[in-house]
Design a protein that fits this description.
The chain is 28% helix and 25% strand. The chain is α+β, with helices and mostly antiparallel strands and 365 residues long. The chain folds into two domains: 2-173 and 339-350, Uridine Diphospho-n-acetylenolpyruvylglucosamine Reductase, domain 3; 177-319. The mean pLDDT is 94.
Length: 365
């Protein structure tokens, strides 16, 4: 694989020499995410998909290292053979989804509420910079470091600092037992349940409230994972009807991949503290104990962002369907002046000529 890495470095150096801007691409399954690109003759594509394969895997150490073009389904197949998993449940959005795209976007599925985000599992990375050099950050063990934790900082950076060529990350064993419970309830009743369960150790690994059409009534789903005695005890506390295992797995997969009927061509993502009051007139689909809320209709972008910010969160146009215009300042919630300044300094140090296209994440950095 060294010759592929060298070829990628040569392409970057050639782009710099030709004063081109590089757009990083692999499986392309998350091309919809982020600000729309303005295509012009100065943009060139860097395809990192050929740089693939699992570099190392130590099941007993719960650590894997994989190249950026490695398919998520291949990684999950190898982990499955050892009864292990990617605990943050990264969305695929297509058969060609890669680990590089999963880390570059930083997206997480239903399990994020219990185990943390993608950045919580990243141990080390290799970054290809604009000079064609390989920069190595972190390693394969957890440790305290001074300054920026670059590996975690690169998670969700959308390639603005360069392609993440390789990533080392933690994996977790699959739970011994897992049960999904369901109950019919209103939106307010769902929030009441989240509040009651929040302070208890119940092993809740995922939760979702899904409305019936656009009404205030819906179904609350709760996934409980852990040792069998603990799961049984938690089920007695949570209550509800036990779902068939196959149907439950299909439900959580449909939420992770946004194939559930609730998700249309356009969807907004609002991230706020779990028990914060609702931020929009349309009825949301709730996940993560109420911390992640999906909206199909947003009439006033300024209002939804202001409401989210007042509650300590943010609002993102996650997916824009045909006929939906992106906000003038971008699909992501505007960042604070401090974060913008830090981002600009990092961009200046890692990519001083602006070789790697950055408008997809933040405009004018």
């Amino acid at each position: 694989m060294n010759f592929i890495k060298e070829d990628l470095a040569e392409q970057v150096v050639a782009a710099v020499a030709g004063r081109k801007q590089i757009v990083i691409r692999a499986g392309g399954t998350k091309a919809f995410y982020g600000n729309a690109m303005v295509h012009n003759e100065q943009l060139v594509e860097l395809d990192v998909a050929p740089y693939n394969g699992i570099s190392s895997y130590e099941p007993t150490e719960l650590v894997m290292t994989a190249r950026c073009g490695t398919l998520l389904r291949d990684i999950e197949a190898v982990l499955d053979e050892n009864n292990q998993r990617l605990a943050w449940e990264p969305p695929h959005f297509g058969e060609q989804a890669t680990i590089g795209g999963a880390i570059a976007t930083g997206l997480a599925g239903p399990g994020r509420m219990a185990v943390g985000s993608a950045s919580d599992f990243v141990l080390g990375t290799q970054l290809l910079n604009a000079e064609g050099q390989i920069l190595r950050f972190g390693g394969t063990v957890m440790k305290n470091v001074a300054g920026y934790d670059m590996s975690r900082l690169l998670t969700g950076s959308m390639g603005v600092f360069g392609p993440i060529l390789e990533v080392s990350f933690k994996v977790l064993p699959k739970p011994i037992a897992e049960v999904t419970l369901q109950r019919h309830c209103s939106l307010n009743e769902a929030f009441d349940c989240f509040g009651q369960w929040q302070a208890k150790s119940l092993g809740i690994s995922a939760s979702a409230w899904i409305p019936h059409d656009d009404s205030q009534d819906g179904v609350l789903y709760v996934r409980i994972s852990g040792a069998e005695p603990a799961v049984k005890q938690a089920c007695a506390v949570v209550g509800g009807e036990r779902m068939d295992t196959q149907l439950a797995n299909q439900l959580w997969l449909s939420l992770r991949e946004q194939t559930h009927p609730f998700f249309g061509d356009t969807v907004w993502r609002v991230s706020v503290p779990p028990l914060a009051e609702t931020v929009n007139e349309s009825v949301p689909l709730l996940e993560w104990g109420g911390a992640q809320r999906w909206l199909r209709q947003v009439g006033d972008v300024t209002n939804i962002r202001h409401a989210a910010a007042q509650r300590g969160g943010h609002a993102t146009l996650f997916r824009a369907g045909a006929g939906t215009s992106q906000p003038a300042d971008g699909v992501f919630h505007p960042v604070s002046a401090g974060i913008a300044a830090i981002t600009r300094r990092l961009k200046s140090n890692l990519d001083p000529l602006g070789t790697f296209y950055s408008d997809r994440l933040l405009r004018n950095i």
